[in-house]
């Protein structure tokens, strides 16, 4: 019996040769196709564009072949994207004209195995919208509140003139024309800082294409384009009707659904006790949650919020519901750690102040204050004015001390003469002469002279 491997190898080589032969047979022509002509763009709404072109007249010679057109587009600074190959002479795309865009198309003949012939590219460039980038709106944001209305807000451009007025326009695929905002939102003194769309002004099952343009007599205002996926920016109302029941040791918490389409709602429940500030969070898809570890002997706080996210990515949660309580209200327990942190420093400060006061008094008793010598010699230093030779009464400039000599001072005693009384007039002349001849004695006493060399007289009566 022959081995099967040579047969398989022979079969593979035969198939490869047949494929090459077929490829040569489908590309027998060598001429180049003419490119498409009359490439145009027609805008529909704010984002959709229809590209249209015509086939050149000499393509009628290739009616036996399958003529198709390859097309693609790219934004400024990007790569070619969304390449399509079909026999149609039109193409519809959703594009944003906020950036420049280039569209190209070429003709080709193609079979399942090879491309026989192709033409050169025909291109059309659409420049970006006019206006400086600093004039476009900033921080644009839209929120769909509970599927009832849409609020879109923005901040003015950083380089807009003072007379700029913004205009809000929107468009959806099934709407035949562009619609304008009828209810603007005021902010920071501006009357055109946002727009509110009521539920009857849009279809909440379709994306919303938005353009915020501007009008100014001083400059071109660059328009801002935005595509809003309505289901991705929904903010639901807080859940309500929260009910708490107990089955054994398990607490069952339920509430009313936040929206009729409950399969697209995600809920978050949070719980904490009255003696703690830490929240425990639970996520659930159904409007019910069982908690087996809650302590019914302590007062607990329950809150719930909702998010419309399972049918699309949505980072916006609803506000928290009102607080609901269960368990016993034992009040807030005394926290000895916090108390000690407050009381201990106060006690230490009081003890330190008391100790310092006591030590001050004790210091005065044990170590009395030492007199200041400067006060004792204040007059001496103040009178000398730095000339210490005055202390010993030496002439200024004298450096030798000379002892003072004793000086004898004469003291004269003078007795006052008495006037004779009437009865004394009868005395004789001898007696009156004796009184008149009073001996005047001069007593010499030796008194040490003081430093000031003064003479003292003592008068005796």
Structural features, described:
By secondary structure, the protein is an alpha+beta fold. Helix content is 16%, strand content 33%. The protein contains five helices and 26 strands. It has helices at 4-26, 336-366, 373-376, 378-384, 429-436, and strands at residues 37-44, 48-54, 67-75, 81-86, 90-94, 101-110, 115-118, 122-126, 138-145, 149-155, 165-171, 179-180, 184-187, 190-198, 208-215, 224-228, 234-235, 243-247, 250-254, 265-273, 280-284, 288-291, 300-308, 324-326, 409-412, 442-445. Strands 3, 4, 6, 7 and 8 form a five-stranded antiparallel β-sheet that branches. Strands 13-14-10-9-17 form a five-stranded mixed β-sheet, with no helix packed on it. Mean pLDDT is 75; it is low at 1-6, 8-12, 14-25, 396-401 and 435-461.
Radius of gyration: 59 Å
Termini gap: 185 Å
**Percent of sequence in beta strands:** 25-35%
Described by the principal axes of the CA atoms, the overall outline is elongated
Please give the share of residues in helix: 10-25%
**Tally the helices: what do you get?**
5
The biggest sheet amounts to: 5 strands, antiparallel
Extract low-pLDDT stretches.
1-6, 8-12, 14-25, 396-401, 435-461
Pairing-aware structural class of the strands and helices? alpha+beta
Mean pLDDT: 75
Number of strands: 26
Summary tags:
disordered C terminus; 461 residues; 5-stranded antiparallel sheet; alpha+beta
Concise overview:
By secondary structure, the protein is an alpha+beta fold.
